[in-house]
Amino acid sequence: MTKKIWVYDTTLRDGSQGEGISLSVKDKLNIAVCLDRLGVDYIEGGWPWAIPKDMEFFLRARDMNWQNARITAFGRTRKPMEKVQDDENLLAIKKSGAQVATIFGKSWDLHVTTALGTTLNENKQMISESIAFLVDQGLEVVYDAEHFFDGFKANPDYAIATLKAAVSGGASWVVLCDTNGGSMPQKIAEAVTAVRKEIDIPLGIHAHNDCDLAVANTLSAVSAGCTQIQGTINGYGERCGNANLCSVLPNLEVKLGYRCLPKGHIRRLTKVSRSISEIANVVPPGNQPFVGHSAFTHKGGVHVSAVVKAPDTYEHISPQAVGNERRILMSEQAGASNLRCKLEEMDLVLTPDAELSVMEAIKKLEGEGYQFEGADASLELFLRKNAGKYRQMFEVEYVKTLVEKRPGQDSVSEAIVKLRVGDRVVHTAAEGNGPVNAMDNALRKALEEVFPAIDRMRLSDYKVRVLDEKEATSAKVRVLVESRDGTNFWNTVGVSTNIIEASWEALLDSMEYALLKDKEKPGS
């Protein structure tokens, strides 16, 4: 029988401690729904005593229908020399209505005597009494042994004694935490093996990524006997983050044959990763393994030629196994195989002579500074035009930008746009926070009355690169624009010695691509 590994997600608590991440209660609930649909076993919602917003999350979550996950409240052991029934932190966990309580305690004698300022024996009593109190309230209790691996290295007998205190209190799980993220995989395995000889309840692993080893340490712990994995989606977390479940889960399920999620749910991983990055307002790294935009992307002509014949020549798993997709890039390094793959994706056909002409045109444009590997939308428009499969939906008659700056006042930017849509002429103007924003607003204003789909898209990123720095202010620049419509994103490019013209070219492509895709939707 396939061995089950229990998945404990702490994106809403540990993940939200990452720099630049701030989640509202609504955000947390939306993320929890994504995690539940993915099929994780535990969702740690936050610390109801320490953060009022987290208590609101629990009170709202308990009225929702959860299909796969058990909602878990986080907290600490009681304070030294205090009674558990008077501890506001433990009482808040009870009040939250969560089904599961996760509390952390000290495993490292240095932390007990220095951070807590109490005795080693009192710390063990704090652990066992706190867990027993929550068990008496009918909760399943997960015990997070904070700094366990550092504590085990310094004083193994005491570190294991704290775990035994958790077991005596009635904990269902003991989770070994590499809180500082400094442990090596071999040492993780050795410690887990030693603990298994002393502890007879299931073990878990909670790894931080300060040495870029959180995923490796998690896999090592599982191989040594841990059956619960803790981590966050996209590796969010304090300092360098937590074990990235988007890497841990496919490694365990697809590579090693464990059962982590309900059957077939691993194919939802890419969508969940990207949905949560949108909610958290964090741009995901393209090179993230398994779920990244570039994870199954091929650029070199030799690579593409081989992948077309046999995908496993350059892909360690099928992209579809985790819900991702293969991408073929076009660039000056691309060969005929790249072009044919892109044409096939778009259901376009070119004659051999036309293919050769397009390849030469792309290489010429890239020599002038264009970069199509990062601008798939501009590339698609270019190929459609060459294949005769492009219909221009509007024509720009002119665009004018004005920037006014008076002493002691903020600058004012305005753009004036005149378009022709069929027999209709649209002439409008708009202000903006700079000339590029003004052009975006004016173009959107001119189009949205005729094409309502424009209202759904937004410019989400804007990058400018100087291509020949020696030319100083007269240098050619490349502008890359990323646009989103809530579910999809696309990139466009413009190049010119005039930054406004390059920006306009990229903006124009972005709008045209949005209208093209809206027109292709079923029912359009």
The CATH homologous superfamily of the largest domain corresponds to: Aldolase class I
Helix content: 25-40%
Instruction: Order the strands across the largest sheet as they lie in space.
Output: 1-2-3-4-5-6-7-8
- What proportion strand? 15-25%
Give the overall shape, derived from the CA principal axes: elongated
Q: Tally the structural domains.
A: 3
Give a structural overview.
With 524 residues, the chain is of the alpha/beta class. The protein is built from 17 helices and 16 strands. The strands form four sheets. An eight-stranded parallel beta barrel has the order 1-2-3-4-5-6-7-8, surrounded by eight helices. Strand 15 and strand 16 form a beta hairpin. The longest helix has 22 residues, at 499-520. The mean pLDDT is 90.
Keywords:
524 residues, alpha/beta, TIM Barrel, Double Stranded RNA Binding Domain, 3 domains, eight-stranded parallel beta barrel, three-stranded antiparallel β-sheet, 17 helices, 16 strands, 40% helix, elongated
What's the gist of this structure?
The protein is α/β, with parallel strands linked by helices and 524 residues long. The chain has three domains: 6-280, TIM Barrel (Alpha-Beta Barrel), CATH 3.20.20.70; 297-387, no CATH class; 395-520, 2-Layer Sandwich (Double Stranded RNA Binding Domain).
